[in-house]
Amino acid sequence: MSIFKVKQWWSNDKLQNEETNEGNQNANCLKVDKFNSHSESDCILVAEGALLKIYKPNAEESSSQILLESQLSDVVLQIETGKFTGNFEDRQILVLHPQSYEIYHLKRKEGHMEAGDQNYLTPVIKHSFTRKADSLTCGPFGNIKTRDFICIQGLDGSLSFFDQDTFLFMCIFSDVIIPSPVCYIASCDSFVICKSTWVLEIYSYQQLREFSELTIRQNKKNIPQWVYNAGEEITRVQVIQTSNNFSSIVALGERHIYCFQDNGLMKYMIKFDFIPICFCAYLIGWYYEPGARLLVMVTSEDSKLYIYEGTTLLWSCSLLSPAIAISRCFLKSLPGGLVTLSVNGIVNVGYLGTEPDLNSTAPPMMNEVADPEQVQKELETVEDSLRKILNNNEDVDNSRSSIEEILKIKADVGKPVQNLFQEFANEKNEALHLLMCPVVLILTCEDPKSIQSVQVSYVCASPFSCSDSTICLDSVNGTEIIENQVFLTGEADISDTRVNILITATDSMGKIEVFNRQVLLPLSLYCTPVENGAEGRYKLRIQPNNACIEFSKIFTDFSEDELRKYGSTVTLAYRSTKQTITLKSEVEQYLVQADDFTEITAVLDHFLIKLIDHNMRMGVKDFRFNIKHDKEFVRQLTHKFLKCVETHAKERNKLKELEDELNVLQKQFIVVQKRLLVQYGSLPPGDCDPLEFLMKDTHLRLVTVVHEIISCKEAVCRAGSALSAVGNLIIYLLKQFTRDELKVTLIEEMMSLSSLYEDYQEWEEAVTQAMSYILNNVFKKTEKDKEKLAPVTEQGILSHINLKRFLKQLRMILDKMFTEILENEDIDNTHKVTRIQELVEVI
Amino acid sequence: MEIEYRILNLYKTKQFDECLKLCETALRSKDDRMIEFIRMRAMTIQAKVVGNGYEEVEYYPQQDDLVSTAVAKTPRPGTSFLREAKTARNVDTSYQKRATATVRSRAGTNTAGARSVRTALNTASRMSRAATALAGGAPYTPGAPLSLRFLSKEDKLFIPASKTLFEYVFYCEGDVRKVNLEQAMEVAFQAQKSDDVVTDWWWNFSLARCYYALGMYRNTEDCLRQALKQNKHISIYLRLVAMYVGLNQPISALDICKQGLSVFHEYTPLLIEQARIHEQMGNAALAVKEYRLVALEDPSNMEAIANIAMYNFYNDQPEIALRYYRRLLATNAAGPEIYNNLGLCCLYCNQWDLTIPCFRQALYFSADPDIRSNIWFNLAHVALSTGDITLSYRCLQVSLAIDSKNEASQHALQALDARLRARRKNAN
């Protein structure tokens, strides 16, 4: 805060012991006073532990700075000076020990030479007491002019009064827990007493004397002269006479300093933004002169010194070391010195110097002179390379391909294994969890330095789940094999049986590249072959262009024996839903039949992929197949899909209602709590029973609603799975039939079935947006249709009317797509004949 | 030396860490009420320091989650900060785009310098900070003072102990969970009930602190007003001001400032509050007048000087601003903001040789991406004033690379881009 520092003039740090004992140094053990035997300058009295030291610093190197060092019998708590006995002219030294006090007289025996002077202390009075002392204050109590009385505060806050070596009386206060400062005000013969209630109380000496008698007799209240409620603990108090009639009381709190006149009038109060440690108030001029100025020096925890006059900051500077006590001294060659005592007993004498050390805090500027031409050249080369990167994309592309070369990726699935290690608490899903399928990813990299980091993310559609969704590698050194487990988590329909693996690699240049790998989960993870069931309601025929193959060759996940016993008809049951699907191989075609569409998707997908795969392995070229279907099938499919959407929306509506209810309930809960709190606190306490009942009831309802929400969420997820299963089947069929690839892609993007993911179920909202585009641009609706089916903007997508329109639009799109296909097929059939003819001609 | 005296010495000289350690050892061997209380006090003070408990004025945004007692959200025109800010921005946008960008960025970085004066970290709530401080530093045995909490009010120790107890519960145990705050309030209520001295302002003040932390502003106001009737303590004024500022009622806050200043003449914390409020309301001239008063009373007040410097800078007196900033640099720890401001002053004072070194120094000190981005923006401005558009372009790109949300840089880059394109078109 300031550019100034205290100039050091003298210090006893060379005379100090190296080792310090924590808490040995008492802040009350610094006193500066003048004695007759050393009248030319002040002496500094310091006690550290039981060691009393008296210094008389001077500028000359040769002469002794230390007058006396004396090991006393007990720990010193405080040093005071004053006239404690009437018959000495000089000021005496009072030393307070925990259970006694001693009064000494400082004497000097002059030697023959200057160095031969001898100083010694003669004990005058010694008095012991039983209560443990904390601090003392002294002065001419009761306006006795001849000598100073002594008031000792015990650790329990009691005040004992002594005259020389006689005990006078004692006051006991019950409201002191930690002893706080006590100070005597000479001008009005009163005491400032700080209590643990953080109140400053002023009692007159007379009052205290009466009080001591009162405590013995009866428990009568003793009302102080005046009080000030500081609201914080008072740590130091100093009383200083500022005019003929008045003294000022300066009290230091935790963050404030208060200054009062002794009649209770507050002069000022300062709030510090630092932690004050100690202070010293002093007068410039004499108190009997009108122009005397009261200044206060305050030291802070970060060893700064602030000097205030009133509330105005006059000077601030840095002390060289933190001080726990501060005082002024008048030495022979240094009038107006500053004495500070540090924690380890080091006394420093200094003065407020000027000659600031400018820019002491600022580090040296990094201002090396650069040649402008050279800088310009550097700038140009940088510009050049920047331009190259920005304009010539080939440069970038070259290095991009290199990442792929550096990092070899291989992904594979293993056989599902029984998971015997984990125990599952909820017995319901136990059977599902038991099967786990390892997904293995092998990353190979020759040069470990060329890859900075690799992140692998697994994406699979619910109800599948991965044991780790993301894995991060800091480096790929040689070959890394990552194994991840995929398992079923719930009883939902299976819509997608692929696991998408995304590999994000950062190369040494910081370039980021994303690779994608897909693996197909084995059928045995989610299906088991069972006895043939009844005929399914829905049938789908697949006509390959060569003869049918045995199922055991296609479904390689199951052992041959397992399938062979079923012959040409295989029925598979899903592990999650326990539904079945039957595949039949007839001579020319495969027949897929199931009770519901949701079952068809996963197995059909798997079957077709395996079929193609098998033919590839057999070396059959030009393998094609055709999926036969009829109008009825398509109609049912569309119907089912719309049904699924409706269920999903309904479940979501239900969930939303529950969530709203939860919101209301929890607000209510908090309001009730608050009311209750006010009731508890009010005077007198109000009737709490109804509110407590209300609170408990609300809590009960909260719990039930939360449980409902959990089950509802599961239902939504299930509906979502069914929806995406049927949706995938539709997309699959569309892809098989249509020639217009763009349209199918658009429809697929519109349906965005992959966006349905666990907690994220806001599918309807997403599709509505895309659908309006498809309707307007792809199918070119008339204006009238648009208006009729446009969602009502002021209501949510899930509202009754909007949902109806949504479904209608969806039906329209699907119908259009399928009718187009059927029309195409009709045309194809007529054209087929001619095509064959053309073929013949070519041959 | 007996351990209790050592503890007392450490406590009175404010060496709390050592004090707590000794207390721990002392309490292990014997049960002493005084030592237990000293430990409680030491922990409280440490928590208070870390948690900014002494700072009566905080400018953290109020979080009113489900507060039914919150006050109305739509203030009358002219009585809130929000409206003022909005109009200020409107004026800005009516400028040409390029001009606004530079002007605003200067405002941004300059105020950064001034604001950093406020010591408060406005990230975490102060309660949690205090709690973590304790967990890290002092040996913390939460079970120990529990016995004290259940002092019955018949106990003769209750009255002297209650304030210590309250502060302990409020600062050391009153972490984010409001439950503990409620406990603190319970202590307060009990104390108030048992206290035959109902006139103790401190309890009203402390209740206000609780209410404030709970977000119950109406009750806070009542309590503070009551406390003010009992004692005119500076903390009450500051709390009231802070509360009104937090509630976005600057007129009431100014009123409190005026009342306070009539009791404590020329009192710096109040003057600073007044100046801050005026500044925030857009009344820069009045604010700077008050900042000058503060600087007269307390010449080491950094915030006042920084604000005066900023005022001069915008008042087209960069030379004078430069002198103030140099004084700040001499007396305070160096930081990125001060060098940034010095660099800008140098630029406008035509001291070309010092401009770049100042910015270089600023970049050296800066760690915060916000500030770094702003410094690069200012460098773009420097480059522009030397006529090097390409360099300026690059500087802006660096600025955006560091902090892509820097609005000023975005605008400036857009403007530069448009200009470059127009130039190319002309050339063609």
List keywords for this structure.
heterodimer, A: 843 residues, alpha+beta, Methylamine Dehydrogenase, Chain H, Immunoglobulin-like, TATA-Binding Protein, 4 domains, 6-stranded antiparallel β-sheet, 13 helices, 31% helix, B: 428 residues, mainly alpha, 22 helices, 0% strand
Spatial separation of the terminal alpha carbons of chain A: 101 Å
The helix-and-strand class of chain B reads mainly alpha
Mean pLDDT of chain B: 72
Strand content of chain B: under 5%
Domains of chain A, number: 4
Record field, number of beta strands of chain B: 0
In terms of per-residue confidence, which ranges of chain A show pLDDT below 50 for 5 or more consecutive residues? 424-428
Over all CA atoms, what is the radius of gyration of chain B?
A: 26 Å
The CATH class of the largest domain in chain A, by name, is Mainly Beta
Protein name (chain B): Tetratricopeptide repeat protein 8
Organism (chain B): Spodoptera littoralis
GO cellular component, one term (chain B): ciliary basal body
InterPro entries (chain A): PHTB1_N_dom, PTHB1, PTHB1_hp_dom, PTHB1_pf_dom
Walkthrough of the structure:
The complex is a heterodimer of chains A (843) and B (428). By secondary structure, chain A is α+β, with helices and mostly antiparallel strands. Chain A has four domains: 6-352, Methylamine Dehydrogenase, Chain H (7 Propeller), CATH 2.130.10; 399-521, Sandwich (Immunoglobulin-like), CATH 2.60.40.10; 524-628, 2-Layer Sandwich (TATA-Binding Protein), CATH 3.30.310; 642-830, no CATH class. Chain A starts with 5 loop residues before the first strand and ends with a helix. The longest helix of chain A is centred in the C-terminal third of the chain and has 51 residues, at 631-681. In chain A, the strands form ten sheets. In chain A, strands 38-40-41-42-39-43 form a six-stranded antiparallel β-sheet, covered by helices on one side. In chain A, a hairpin with a 3-residue loop joins β19 (247-252) and β20 (256-261). The model of chain A is unreliable at 424-428 (pLDDT under 50). Chain B has 428 residues and is mostly helical. Helices cover 73% and strands 0% of the residues of chain B. Chain B has helices at residues 3-12, 16-29, 33-50, 81-94, 97-115, 126-136, 146-149, 158-173, 178-194, 201-214, 217-230, 234-246, 250-263, 268-280, 284-297, 302-314, 318-331, 336-348, 352-365, 369-385, 389-402, 407-427. The chains are: A alpha+beta (843), B mainly alpha (428). Chains A and B meet through β21, β25 and α8 of A and α1, α2, α3, α8 and α9 of B. Chain B: InterPro entries: BBS8, TPR-like_helical_dom_sf, TPR_rpt. Chain B: One of its GO terms (biological process) is non-motile cilium assembly. Chain B: One of its GO terms (cellular component) is BBSome. Chain B: This is Tetratricopeptide repeat protein 8.
